[in-house]
Amino acid sequence: MRSASGPVRPRGRRASLLRLLAVGCWLTAPACGKKVVGAAATDAAAVVHVAMIEETVPFDDSEWVVLEAKDLGKKLKANTEYAEEKSTEGRFVAVRYKVTNKGAKEAHVLDAPKLTDGKGRAYGAIDLEAFYVPEKGKTLGLEVLAPGEAKEAWTVFESPPDAKELKLEIHGLGLFGQKKLVDVGL
After folding, report:
1. Over the stretch 26-80, which tens digit does the pLDDT of each residue have?
2. Using one digit for the tens of pLDDT, what is the confidence trace for 170-179?
3. Contact in structure between 159 and 166 (CB atoms under 8 Å)
4. Which residues lie across from 64 on neighbouring strands?
5. Would 123 disulfide with which of 60, 106, 115, 186, CB 3.0-4.6 Å?
6. Domain residue ranges in the chain
7. Rounded CA gap, 39 and 184, in Å?
8. pLDDT, tens digit, for every residue of 37-47?
9. What angle do CA 82, 87, 88 make, to 5 degrees?
């Protein structure tokens, strides 16, 4: 739109906002599309270490080792006659791990492991998982871990069809402990 004296320019708050937006675009444009390299890349990698299967993952109060992970497919058979077969559009994943109490007092696993995917989604254990773990396998539940005691357990998860880059998210024995990730190879 033009007036007799030239183009019409926005005024007031709208003009300030447009100028701020233009300056922001001008300042960030040189960095668009560039990879992080050098010290910045190594600093980012040092922040999050993703452990692998059979690698010991230490916490102040405990130690975890993921022993194996299995893709159980779309159908999950019960290990007892009291439960029915489950099915899913995605897949069921079973993870076997060992947790050791390094503390001086009895403790519980208060924050159960979760399965996460490359999109940042997290999945908890399936309902009634004790009926679906491999035969003679155990779930962790609310069992007490004595000082120095290690327990082995299974957790079964259900993930959607598009879930990839699966990792087990584990925590120390406290309720709000630090979390760490283990790549389960699925």
Report:
1. 333 333 333 333 333 334 444 478 999 999 999 999 999 999 999 999 999 999 9
2. 999 877 778 9
3. yes
4. 57, 99
5. 115
6. 50-183
7. 29
8. 333 333 444 44
9. 145
> In terms of pTM, does the model score above 0.90?
no
In sequence order, which residues have a C-beta less than 8 Å from that of residue 70 and are 6 or more positions away?
93, 94, 95
Q: What is the mean pLDDT of the chain?
A: 81
Pairing, β 122-123 against β 150-159: unpaired
- For residue 105, is pLDDT > 80? yes
d(CA 159, CA 161): 7
Asked if residues 102 and 61 have their Cβ atoms less than 8 Å apart, the reply is: yes
Interstrand relation of 50-51 and 179-183 (parallel, antiparallel or unpaired): parallel
List the beta bridge partners of residue 63: 58, 100
For residues 91 and 109, give the distance between their C-alpha atoms in angstroms, rounded to a whole number: 26
- Which of these, 126, 123, 119, 114, lies nearest to 169 by C-alpha position? 114
Q: Kind of pairing, strands 6-7 and 50-51?
A: unpaired
User: How confident is the model at residue 11, as a pLDDT?
Assistant: 54
Which CATH code for domain 50-183? 2.60.40.1240
Are 111 and 151 in contact, with CB atoms under 8 Å apart?
no
Q: With beta carbons less than 8 A apart as the criterion, state whether 183 and 137 touch.
A: no
CA-based torsion, 170, 173, 176, 178: positive or negative: negative
